[in-house]
Q: What sequence folds into this?
């Protein structure tokens, strides 16, 4: 049985050797081929790119950050504009995070209690309070297609006792998000409804992760995210959690590993049954002149088992590229990447020309999205 | 008689009311319709644009800055790359300045003598010396199509005596540039040769300007630039110089007003017989969120005599655009400018997204290049 009827996630193929799976996620704005990667449009734009670039990149979906958008320009303004899709001119799906991660990472002063979290805007210091219901309402105002519940992101290392209290709170918040979301979307048909995802927390503790997963599955969501990873722990520790956690999640729902990661992390995530990824790495690295490039042909074995061998990362700001008159990327679909030389790109970085970042961003996102294509092809 | 046979400048039409003239300038990289405007590719790129954008803009030519390129990445590297055209992938003409203007404006420490000018790099403080011959050699190494002589740019106000000494020096340097250029290009056919332009100086003094012009015409150049204007004097003072200076220049050679200006300055320059313009205004203003937009239909009379009435400049960072959901520019050839709203552009500026600058730059250069088309049409 490879299909889950009446479900929005359709399993197409499963690997015989690993937990890797290929499928389709049906959303109100079209069907996504899984596994997929979401470029980050933090403030309503993938840095330095237009919607035309995203279309040319064949990006299936983008991720926007609720925290940044609620601060500027505000969800009210975006609602007035006709929603985030219209505002940024993007008609494919958008996933929004809950805002929680930035509340916990950007805001120095924050107080959490049963009701929600109090924090100060990192921009102007004004005091704000966010309840789980607020996060959902903001995401609904933005017009998000995949809405995330508000969770507490515990900084590691933390005492096990604290983590346990935290996942219990996160579960209660998840239930409140579910209730609020259902109430607010009660009149929408299933085809028109956004999706709501729960977020499994629990640090590196197996029993707590399992407890969190079971509790969230009990609430019932359209998909399950694995949060609180790639926050400083070793890759091996992250893989250990992934090794068991996807088994706790329903097979007929998509799994989303938040904020991960390098190409080898994504491949290793897929092998452990993950379907969705997002990460700032391709775009952030681009801004620092670090380009992802393929290493030529590779075997299927190398792809899955030695993923670091299939690609290279070059720092095109390095002196050694100053006289490299070969194309930035001869295989790119973007003509400027095929025509401009590495020496030219190095020059642009060296004199701080913004075009440098645009070119590097196109290169890295193309690499990441091609990587996902290769993953889907190789499952 | 409207044609100048065997000349690289061909006069097509003269206004009956003003000195405005329409023509063609033949270069080794194609024929340019005059009057024209040159977008500034200071460091080998028009800030935030690719060659594809410049083609879409129908830019006939760009201007690059010798000073910036000789400092980084150096003319030697660009020569190795196959020249500036190949380096930046631009096969239409490039005009390069002599480097003099930046030597005098950017470098705090400089000493001028008969031989040349000693200055320090504004980047690392290293001591450099530039002779007129050096400037020509660097421009030849870059592969410039229109080469400018090295001149002294006198800061105004200055004593008349000093200005007179300075124009005499500039004339001697111009002769040395002519000699060096001719020696170095002696083996090239006329069709393959770059052009060499002299630069008229002389501040706001009529007699000195005339003296400078006569002396340069006596040396003989392919075109004549009017330098040392738009450096802080009033617009009326600038127009006064233009009122008489073009009469001193050969009718069969193009005239280039350096570093000018706002749309009304360009129109007023054309009325006084100028054929070529360059200015940082459209690109620099774009970086500050100031957009040039047409004011709708206008009469020919308004175009020539009330040029400020035919366009408006909006500061799209202003609060009043935060809820302006009309297109940035409904008449643009660039789809993103027709589709993205002013509110979205304001948001991008407000959160410092580099896409904002790219969009504003495209808008302003399109405006300037359309302005030149309108000028050519209206002569």
A:
């Amino acid at each position: 049985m490879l299909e889950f009827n009446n479900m929005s996630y359709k399993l197409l193929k499963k690997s015989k050797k690993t937990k890797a799976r290929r499928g389709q996620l049906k959303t109100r704005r079209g069907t996504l081929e899984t596994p997929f990667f979401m470029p980050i449009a933090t403030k309503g734009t993938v840095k330095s790119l237009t919607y035309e670039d995203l279309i040319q990149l064949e990006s299936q979906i983008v991720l926007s950050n609720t925290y940044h958008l609620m601060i500027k320009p505000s969800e009210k303004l975006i609602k007035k504009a006709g929603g985030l899709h219209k505002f940024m001119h993007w008609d494919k799906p958008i996933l929004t995070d809950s805002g929680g991660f930035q509340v916990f990472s950007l805001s120095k002063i924050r107080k959490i209690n049963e009701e929600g979290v109090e924090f100060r805007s990192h921009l102007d210091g004004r005091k704000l309070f966010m309840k789980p219901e607020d996060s959902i309402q903001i995401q609904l105002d933005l017009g998000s297609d995949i809405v995330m519940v508000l969770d507490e992101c515990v900084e590691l290392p933390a005492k096990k006792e604290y983590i346990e209290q935290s996942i219990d709170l996160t579960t209660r918040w998840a239930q409140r998000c579910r209730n609020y979301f259902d109430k607010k979307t009660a009149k929408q048909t299933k085809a028109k409804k956004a999706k709501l995802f729960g977020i499994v927390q629990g640090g590196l503790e197996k029993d707590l992760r399992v407890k969190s997963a079971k509790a969230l599955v009990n609430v019932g969501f359209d998909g399950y995210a694995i949060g609180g990873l790639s926050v400083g722990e070793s890759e091996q520790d992250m893989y250990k959690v992934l090794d068991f956690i996807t088994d706790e999640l329903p097979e007929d729902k998509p799994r989303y590993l938040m904020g991960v990661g390098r190409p080898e992390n994504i491949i290793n995530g897929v092998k452990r049954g993950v379907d969705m990824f997002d990460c700032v790495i391709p775009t952030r690295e681009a801004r620092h002149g670090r380009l992802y490039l393929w290493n030529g042909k590779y075997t299927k074995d190398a792809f899955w088992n030695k993923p670091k061998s299939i690609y290279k990362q070059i720092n095109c700001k390095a002196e050694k590229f100053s006289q490299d008159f070969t194309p930035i990327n001869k295989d790119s679909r973007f003509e400027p990447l095929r025509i401009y030389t590495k020496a030219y790109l190095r020059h642009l970085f060296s004199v701080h020309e913004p075009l440098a970042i645009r070119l590097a961003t196109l290169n890295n996102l193309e690499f990441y999205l091609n990587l996902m294509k290769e993953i889907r092809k190789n499952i």
In short: The first strand of chain B starts at residue 9 and ends at 14. The mean pLDDT of chain B is 95.
